[in-house]
Amino acid sequence: MDNEPRTIDAVRFTCGIIDYLNEEGEAGITEIAEEFDRSKSSVHAYLTTLTEESFVVKESGRYRLGLHHLELAEGVKNQVDNYDVIESEIDDLAEETGEVAQFGTLEENDLVYLYKAYGDSAVETLSSIGSREALHCTALGKAILSQMDESEVRDTLGQAPFPSKTSHTITEYDALFEELERIRERGYAIDDEENIMGLVCVAAPVVLDDGTILGALSVSGPSSRLTQEQIEENFENKVKSAANVIQINVTFS
Hints:
253 residues; alpha+beta; Beta-Lactamase; 20% strand
């Protein structure tokens, strides 16, 4: 007997259209049909339905996401406990360091970015609020994994080798467990060009007194600015302090 959960192709295709419009900004029927290898008539029917439901807006024959998504996003944000505490501390961290500051959490074995702020010297990164990334190749993800025991890490990541994003990516469990031990000892994680070449990230986990892993926060910047020396002198204490502030505020809120 097949125990695999049932899936619905129409729903999958609808989600694909929404994701595609989110990435591209706008698109026409022909572009979407070619992207998904679907007929124009089929794509038109889906877009018409999405437009009627206010998920998509049609302008001059092209389609983009509607503002209804803002309402949905606000509703999801309100489900995240102490979002205002996270937002305030990440804003302060970005201003203090001048770099990109982010907060991420674990959902369905992925790292999900909850909030992102830019300092005066920040460089753009690929992450965006709500986007997902692998745990093993990001400082945020490794900071979260460092608070799990070995069996939890294996259950979360599944079978190795893990996908390699760059030549620096850790892809095997032995190396990963050694790295997680170093993270626990020093209290912060480093993504040393493991996800994007030229970009370094420093992250600290946020763990409540009852052991709940709230997530992790990070500072990201070019490798020329986030050298090991600079991390130890300027960034290590900042990310650990910010994580501690969130932990305290959440505990006593």
